[in-house]
Amino acid sequence: xxxxxxxxxxxxxxxxxxxxxxxxxxxxxxxxxxxxxxxxxxxxxxxxxxxxxxxxxxxxxxxxxxxxxxxxxxxxxxxxxxxxxxxxxxxxxxxxxxxxxxxxxxxxxxxxxxxxxxxxxxxxxxxxxxxxxxxxxxxxxxxxxxxxxxxxxxxxxxxxxxxxxxxxxxxxxxxxxxxxxxxxxxxxxxxxxxxxxxx
Length: 199
What we know:
Elements: H1 2-14, H2 41-48, E1 53-54, E2 56-60, E3 70-74, E4 77-81, E5 86-92, H3 98-104, E6 106-111, H4 117-124, E7 136-138, E8 145-147, E9 152-164, E10 167-179, E11 186-189, E12 192-195
Antiparallel strand pairs: 1-11, 2-3, 2-6, 4-5, 5-10, 6-9, 7-8, 9-10, 11-12
């Protein structure tokens, strides 16, 4: 049977058709203001809230001397590419933390564990000293805060930043990463924290 398969493959290779040209890339364009559907922002948020996400804290080292490290709670984090290794997160254009991360040029994504809801709330507050009383060490490449108890950490350099309406899409090149043996991730669903049910 194996010999028959080899003979077949050789015959196919000998009579292989000419290569087919790839299809042209589609033309990309922005949606015009007159093409946008009229949506109620509250309804948009309510419906999209049905999509459960993980919760992370994005941190960066101080960009200037005497400044504390930067960090904010983020639920819009995603893996993006395997080769090269890229991840992405979204941040509001009005964020006061993002400019500090941008100045640092690096960041660490800390994927929160199921018992870290209060830590998430602390990093969701604007203007406070978010690192007061928070245990952390430093990520190996960027030196960004790596939060104790996080189920995973991803150490990155800023690779690209794109606009996305009232948010920015930040792409990071992954330089180091790791995961801890923990109970499971913290989830966010319909405006509340949740956790995975035990198997």
